[in-house]
């Protein structure tokens, strides 16, 4: 049943043919240039279903942000006073006027207010509708777009409209203009055992002053196990004490399945005390976790084996979110074109008791996500931080941008229709409310040249970076001027080893790398820090960055500074890793022992008021 409003009635009376919803004056809400590297293949089938998400403005978000910064600031008396789910929701709730304006519009298409699916804060409304209706409501045409290089395809549009009076009541409608592919950040090359090992037999250990007992087993150079990381990052024999309350999680997308047999083989070989341990799987939006060995996902196995291995026996969760990888265009009717990342966010924000540490190794170029939507996603990550969750993302595997050293590939061009040459920041790493992790390799540690790093073009520099980042930019002088945005949020924040990780996947034992390996390593270590705090009755660390930048300024040896080397890309050598923070390895890699002492309140005045 469609409900016709009074206005429609008047139009009909005046002899104008009216159809549901069409009585409003539409105006373009968002329009993007046809994305580089994608081809418009054909009109989307009218009966293809999409889960349309309508984002209503969050007028009090700045208040939420202020809370977030206060409770994450180690010098603030409210440090650790995380907000409840209800408190966060009250701060992101839309204005009543927006709710009724949107409800009224949807009612004109026959969607009764009480039938609509909403986020519990009411800031999102979700509708499962055929393309034909979405096209009518948004005065647009959806097409099947194919990514030339990978063959992946999605149903999207480059422009959509909304009734003019709704522009102030709706921030964003998706899926429309987002062309992100959210790929896993594992480096695609496997290193064979023989190639990787650079063991110096004459020298059984490598002296590393910051390591546990001042040394690391030589076999770890180019061949990492959880034991190696415990030595290198000075975790030593720390044993978790708060497994009753602490939790850690990794996210999985795009049919990446974490295999239990691989997990057990890994533990049997590298972490015997964890043998027969397991993790929970939470299935979101019809996600699955196929246990046949040939369905095992390298990304999922890497993430779970290291994040959960380092934090064992902390209870662990793997989130598997449905939504196939962008599909083959011919197969369109059997696939959906949702954005699985949005499904995970809506799930986790609805969880009254989310894990204190969550690591994600997926992302894409910032410019593939429109500003309006990137802002909303980033704000959801802020909500998690305000709830006391440490959100960790890999910084990407393309240095300052895809396109290796061949300008002819033109990957380092902007997507805005102007084709300017620019470094290409990664998202969500560029969101100021997450902790982005870059990569090192070898022992002693060096910059790994793939380490994603740079400056956001969307998010301005947060206050917590106001000392470290301008210092770096000043020293950079006019190098790369015009290629990066010096006023943007800079990343990564920290780094960890990102190559030569031994994993089991699909029953095989091999080495893998990428910032995908670095993120779960930092995730595991952060979870141990949370453990130490929870065991003392202190709140979890929550959003980490204000603390990380304070430590970087005051207790710099709590991170192992990486100096030298650069993150090449876009036909350049990229940024150079300097003393202190840099957009290659952040402040460096963690020294768990020192961070632990800070976290439980033994160092400096960081936590003393
Ligand atoms: C170094 O690692 C190798 C390989 O894991 C192991 O066989 C050896 O016992 C280790 N040496 C020390 C001193 O821990
Ligand atoms: C570790 O391996 C790298 C790369 O082969 C090498 O340059 C470095 O010297 C090795 N470290 C030690 C202490 O031998
Ligand atoms: C692990 O599980 C296997 C198979 O159920 C069992 O035989 C073995 O005793 C278990 N090991 C430990 C240490 O519990
Ligand atoms: C959920 O997944 C199952 C098995 O993969 C499939 O048969 C079913 O159609 C899916 N349901 C939805 C709503 O996508
Ligand atoms: C930008 O590049 C695209 C793809 O190569 C091309 O179609 C377009 O005309 C270019 N735009 C400008 C302004 O040069
Ligand atoms: C640079 O970043 C700022 C803040 O994030 C933004 O307002 C501005 O538009 C960006 N400039 C370019 C050229 O991207």
UniProtKB/TrEMBL annotation:
Q: Which reaction does it catalyse?
A: Release of an N-terminal tripeptide from a polypeptide
Q: How is the cofactor bound?
A: Binds 1 Ca(2+) ion per subunit.
Question: Signal sequence span per UniProt?
Answer: 1-18
Q: Which residues bind Ca(2+)?
A: 561-562, 580, 582
The record's annotation in SMART domains points to:
Pro-kuma_activ
Tagged with keyword Protease: yes
Matching InterPro entries: Peptidase_S8/S53_dom, Peptidase_S8/S53_dom_sf, S53_propep, Sedolisin_dom, Tripeptidyl-peptidase_I
Protein name per its UniProtKB record? tripeptidyl-peptidase II
The upper taxonomy is: Eukaryota, Fungi, Dikarya, Basidiomycota, Agaricomycotina
């Amino acid at each position: 049943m469609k409900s016709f409003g009074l206005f429609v009635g008047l139009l009909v009376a005046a002899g104008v043919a009216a159809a549901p919803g069409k009585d409003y004056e539409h105006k373009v809400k968002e329009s993007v240039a046809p994305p580089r590297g994608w081809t418009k293949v054909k009109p989307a089938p009218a009966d293809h279903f999409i889960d349309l998400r309508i984002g209503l403005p969050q007028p009090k978000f700045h208040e939420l942000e202020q809370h977030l910064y206060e409770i994450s600031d180690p010098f603030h008396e409210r440090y650790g006073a995380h907000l409840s789910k209800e408190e966060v929701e009250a701060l992101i709730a839309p204005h009543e006027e927006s709710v009724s304006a949107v409800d009224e519009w949807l009612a004109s298409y026959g969607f009764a207010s009480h039938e609509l699916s909403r986020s519990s804060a009411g800031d999102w409304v979700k509708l499962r509708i055929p393309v034909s209706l979405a096209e009518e409501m948004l005065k647009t045409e959806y097409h099947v777009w194919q990514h030339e290089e990978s063959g992946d395809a999605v149903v999207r549009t480059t422009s959509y409209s909304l009734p003019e009076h709704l522009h102030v009541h709706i921030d964003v409608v998706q899926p429309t203009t987002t062309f992100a592919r959210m790929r896993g950040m594992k480096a695609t090359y496997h290193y064979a055992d023989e190639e990787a090992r650079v063991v110096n037999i004459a020298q059984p250990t490598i002296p590393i002053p910051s390591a546990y007992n001042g040394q690391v087993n030589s076999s770890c150079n180019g061949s990492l196990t959880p034991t190696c990381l415990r030595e290198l990052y000075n975790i030593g024999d720390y044993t978790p004490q708060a497994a009753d309350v602490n939790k850690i999680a990794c996210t999985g997308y795009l049919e990446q399945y974490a295999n239990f047999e691989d997990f057990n083989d890994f533990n049997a070989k590298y972490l015997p005390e964890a043998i027969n341990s397991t993790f929970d799987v939470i299935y979101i939006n019809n996600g699955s976790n196929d246990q046949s060995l040939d369905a095992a996902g390298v990304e999922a196995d890497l993430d779970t084996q290291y994040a959960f291995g380092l934090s064992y026996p902390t209870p662990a969760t793997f989130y598997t979110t449905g939504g196939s990888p962008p599909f083959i265009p011919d197969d369109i009717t059997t696939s959906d074109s949702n954005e699985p990342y949005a499904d995970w966010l809506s799930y986790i924000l609805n969880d009254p008791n989310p894990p204190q540490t969550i690591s994600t190794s997926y992302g894409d170029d910032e410019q593939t996500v429109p500003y309006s939507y990137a802002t909303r996603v980033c704000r959801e990550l802020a909500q998690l931080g305000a709830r006391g969750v440490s959100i960790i993302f890999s910084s990407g595997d393309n240095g300052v941008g895809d396109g290796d050293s061949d300008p002819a590939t033109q990957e380092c061009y902007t997507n805005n229709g102007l084709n300017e040459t620019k470094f290409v920041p990664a998202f969500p790493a560029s969101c100021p409310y997450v902790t982005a992790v870059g990569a090192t390799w070898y022992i002693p540690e060096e910059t790994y040249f793939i380490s994603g790093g740079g400056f956001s073009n969307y998010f301005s520099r947060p206050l917590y970076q106001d000392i470290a980042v301008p210092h770096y930019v000043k020293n950079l002088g006019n190098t790369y001027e015009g290629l990066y945005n010096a006023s943007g949020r800079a990343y990564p924040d920290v780094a960890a080893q990102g190559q030569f990780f031994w994993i089991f996947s699909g029953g095989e034992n091999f080495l893998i790398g990428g910032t995908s390996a670095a993120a779960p390593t930092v995730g595991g270590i952060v979870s141990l820090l949370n453990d130490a705090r929870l065991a003392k009755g202190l709140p979890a660390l929550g959003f980490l960055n204000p603390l990380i930048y304070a430590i970087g300024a005051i207790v710099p040896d709590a991170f192992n500074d990486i100096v030298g080397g650069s993150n090449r890309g876009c036909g350049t050598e990229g940024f150079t890793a300097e003393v202190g923070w840099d957009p290659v390895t952040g402040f460096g890699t963690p020294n768990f022992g020192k961070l632990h002492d800070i976290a439980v309140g033994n160092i400096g005045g960081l936590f003393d008021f």
